[in-house]
Write a structure and sequence with these properties.
This is COMM domain-containing protein 3. The structure is a single chain. This protein is an alpha+beta fold. The chain folds into 2 domains: about 55 residues, no CATH class; about 70 residues, no CATH class. The protein is built from 4 helices and 3 strands. It has a 3-stranded antiparallel beta sheet. The two termini are about 50 Å apart.
């Protein structure tokens, strides 16, 4: 953008701020699945002229499917785990290290796909994860009681 000859007379700092504002507007519109009327109203409130608003909305419509894919959070539907016990390393050194292979079955409400998320952790890491989940559950419980 800074190399565009049509924009050479504009202060680069102002140009960067405008670019950041436009990118934020586009991402937020995609995040909230905003329709053209909501976007037009917002841009009219920002005192943009009709021609620019129409051009913006036309371009937004073209890229809207890309912006709205995968915006719903994943929901954990099930958890499975198994204990793994590593006896030797690649260099044949004895290690005797237990670890846990945890698999989270997740669901995305937008696509309906059910990808699994798997990770390996030590007992300490698993205990830390369980503690954080308990803290999150308590926070949610307190929030719903208010």
């Amino acid at each position: 953008i800074l190399d565009d000859p049509d924009l050479k007379d504009i202060d680069p700092t102002v140009l960067k701020h405008c670019h950041a504002a436009a990118a934020t507007c586009i991402l937020e519109a995609g995040k909230h699945k905003a329709d053209i009327s909501a976007i037009s109203t917002c841009l009219e409130d920002c005192k943009l002229d009709k021609e620019r608003i129409e051009q913006f909305c036309t371009e937004y419509q073209v890229f809207k499917p890309i912006l709205t894919i995968g915006r719903s959070p994943l929901h954990i539907t099930d958890v499975s785990w198994r204990l793994e016990y590593q006896i030797k390393s690649n260099q044949l050194h004895k290690t005797y290290q237990p670890s846990y292979l945890v698999t989270l079955n997740v669901e995305n409400s937008d696509s309906g796909l059910h990808p699994d998320v798997s990770f390996t952790c030590t007992m300490e890491q698993l205990q830390d994860l369980v503690g954080k989940l308990k803290d999150a559950a308590k926070s949610l419980e307190r929030a719903t009681q208010m």
